[in-house]
Design a protein that fits this description.
Rossmann fold; six-stranded parallel β-sheet; seven-stranded mixed β-sheet; Quinone Oxidoreductase, Chain A, domain 1; 16 strands; globular; 352 residues; 30% helix; disordered C terminus; binds NADP nicotinamide-adenine-dinucleotide phosphate; alpha/beta
Length: 352
C-alpha cells in the first residue's frame, strides 16, 4: 500500500515521500480501515515541522488527526462493527497517551473505541473532518467557556473551519459573535454566513471596534487561534474578569523557534483586571476525558452535523500523489477550502 512518510523533521514538502509499505494486520480490539479521505490540517504540518505539542518517532506517516474510510477487516473483540461499514477514524494522539497511526496512508489500523460510524448522507468530505474541528468548536463554546444565550463571544480567524463552526453553533445556541478576520473581502461573506459582527484587522482597530460593539466593558469570553499581537489585543478587549481561550497560533504558522511563538500580553491589563488567558488542546482533552465522555461528545457532534446545525465546509480533494500541491494549497492565504488527500474519487451527491 502507499503511505506518505516523513523521514525526519522539516519542511513538509522537503521531507515527505510516497513509500510502499505492507498492509497492517488488526489485533484484538482493532479494525483495519481502508482510508478514503484525510484532511491536511495546520496541526499536521506543525507535527512535521517539529513545532507541535508532541513529536512522533521519525520516520512517521503524516496526518495525525482524522480520516474517513471503510472497515476492511476486524480483529477479535470488535463486536458491534461490520466489515464494509464507513467510519471516521479519530487519530488524534491523546497526550499523555499512546501515539496513533498516521492517516495519510491507504490502510491504517485503529482501536475500535476511536471509530465513529457515519450516516450515508454525510459526504466523505464532511465525514473526514467530523472529529477535530467540530469537536473543538463544541468544546470551546459549550464546555471551556460555557457561553450562554445572549452573551457575546469574540473570536479570531473567524473564517477558518473552526470559526465557521463556532458561528453556526453560536446561532443555534443564541450566542452573539464578534468575528475577527484579516482580510476586508472576508467581511461581507462572514456576515452573510451568520456572524453578528465582523472586525477586519486589515483596516480596523480591534479594541476600538469591540468597544463600539459590546460597550466600554468589553466582552467576557473570547477564543483565539492567531496569537501574537492579535491575540494580545483580544486579551485587552476583554472585560475585567474576562477569559480568553487560546487554541492556535496561526500568526506564527511557519515559525519553528519556540521562543518566537508568543502572545505579548499587557501585564497591567491582565493583573489589575484579573483576566484569564489559558490554553485548549484537543489532544490533552482526549488524554483526560473518559471514554464515555469522548463517545458522548463525538456523538453530539455527529448529531449536530447530521441535523445540519453544523455544516462542515466542503474540502478540496487532491489525489495522494499530488500531496505537494495539497500542502502548498493549505498554506496559501485565502485558500478557502480545506485540502483533503483522497485515495479514490470521493465526489458524491452531497459534494456536488
Ligand atoms: N487546540 C486545538 O486542539 C485545536 C483543534 C483544532 C484546530 N485548532 C487550530 O485552529 C486553527 C484553525 O484551524 P482550521 O482547520 O479551522 O483552519 P483553516 O480552515 O485551515 O483556516 C485557516 C484560517 O486562518 C486564517 N489565518 C491564517 N493565518 C492567519 C494569520 N496570520 N492571521 C489571521 N488569520 C489567519 C485564514 O484566513 P485567510 O482566509 O485570510 O487566509 C483562514 O481563515 C488552527 O490554528 C488550528 O491549529 C486547534
Amino acid at each position: 500500500m502507499r503511505a506518505l512518510v516523513a523521514g525526519e523533521v522539516g519542511e513538509p514538502n522537503d521531507v515527505l515521500r510516497l513509500e510502499s509499505r505492507p498492509v497492517p494486520t488488526p489485533e484484538a480490539g482493532q479494525a483495519l480501515i481502508r482510508v478514503k479521505a484525510a484532511p491536511v490540517h495546520a496541526s499536521d504540518l506543525h507535527v512535521l515541522r517539529g513545532r507541535y505539542g508532541f513529536s512522533p518517532e521519525f520516520p512517521t506517516v503524516g496526518g495525525h488527526m482524522e480520516c474517513v474510510g471503510l472497515i476492511e477487516s476486524l480483529g477479535r473483540h470488535t463486536e458491534g462493527l461490520k466489515i464494509g461499514e464507513r467510519v471516521v477514524a479519530v487519530a488524534v494522539p491523546a497526550v499523555p497517551g499512546p501515539r496513533a497511526a498516521g492517516t495519510w496512508q491507504e490502510y491504517l489500523v485503529a482501536d475500535v473505541h476511536r471509530l465513529v460510524p457515519v450516516p450515508d448522507r454525510l459526504s466523505d468530505s464532511s465525514a473526514c473532518q467530523l472529529a477535530v474541528n467540530p469537536l473543538t468548536a463544541l468544546l470551546l463554546v459549550a464546555r471551556e467557556l460555557d457561553v450562554q444565550s445572549g452573551e457575546w463571544l469574540l473570536q479570531t480567524a473567524a473564517g477558518s473551519t473552526v470559526g465557521r463552526l463556532v458561528i453556526q453553533l453560536a446561532r443555534h445556541l443564541g450566542i452573539r459573535t464578534i468575528n475577527v478576520v484579516r482580510r476586508r473581502d472576508a467581511v461581507e461573506e462572514l456576515k452573510a454566513f451568520g456572524g453578528d459582527e465582523v472586525i477586519c484587522t486589515e483596516d480596523e482597530d480591534l479594541l476600538q471596534r469591540v468597544t463600539e460593539i459590546a460597550g466600554p466593558a468589553g466582552v467576557r469570553k473570547a477564543i483565539d487561534c492567531v496569537a501574537g499581537p492579535v491575540g494580545a489585543q483580544v486579551s485587552q478587549a476583554l472585560a475585567p474578569g474576562g477569559e480568553v481561550v487560546v487554541y492556535g497560533a496561526l500568526s506564527t504558522h511557519r515559525q519553528t523557534d519556540p521562543a518566537a511563538l508568543t502572545i505579548p500580553l499587557l501585564a497591567r491589563s491582565v493583573i489589575y483586571e484579573t483576566k484569564v488567558v489559558r490554553g485548549f488542546w484537543l489532544n490533552h482533552w482526549f488524554g483526560t476525558a473518559s471514554p464515555t465522555d469522548v463517545l458522548r461528545a463525538l456523538s453530539e457532534v455527529r448529531s449536530l452535523v447530521a441535523a445540519d446545525v453544523l455544516s462542515i465546509p466542503q474540502g478540496k480533494p487532491f489525489p495522494l500523489e499530488r500531496f505537494a500541491e495539497a500542502i502548498s494549497f493549505a498554506e496559501t492565504p485565502a485558500h478557502g477550502a480545506k485540502p483533503l488527500l483522497v485515495f479514490e474519487d470521493v465526489r458524491d451527491k452531497d459534494d456536488e
